[in-house]
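User: For my dataset I need records formatted as: sequence, then structure tokens, nothing else. Please produce one.
Assistant:
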Amino acid sequence: MQLRSDSFYPYARLDISLAFTQYDPSTHVRMGGNRNPHLAWNDVPKDTKSFALLCWDIDVPSEASRVNREGMTVPIDLKRAEFFHWVLCDLPADLRSIPEGAHSDGITPRGKKVGATPQGGLQGLNDYTGWFANDDDMRGEYGGYDGPGPPWNDERVHGYRFGLYALDVPSLGLSGRFTGYDVRKAMQGHVLEHTLMVGVYAIYPGAKL
């Protein structure tokens, strides 16, 4: 099974049109285009009954004491954690692509709803739900895709994994406010094949891989 995109090349920098936030020389950061990337796939296993799709960042700072603090940077060698940006399951077995901007086209303060997607299947919660929990202007339940928004002072370039999973069941039995971790757990024992694309992104001008 192969995954490709017209929106970015493997291991290349993601465009600001796909990002939640982008660099601003006067304010450090401003809002990005927040469009989901185009994705397409082929060579699907013949017994596929549904797909799951996850996008996650593996380079999120594990503690926040230096995040977005004036006069500080987040060290490149700080221990890192995961952050889910897109959580989909029960995508139809005959689906072969998701158009750019079909699931997200701009930032929606307080988030988009979980539930049905434009191509069928279900979208769960991404991790901006927790990130904005204490922000009076942005708190809410963030369903579907919301793009990269790494700390504006992070010395590390972040890697964003887009993982597609061909499954042997038509549904994972999830509903409502399910997360990326819920999808991972429900998929266990049902993955026929999976494929991965990686894009990179940073806001801090001096960030390195």
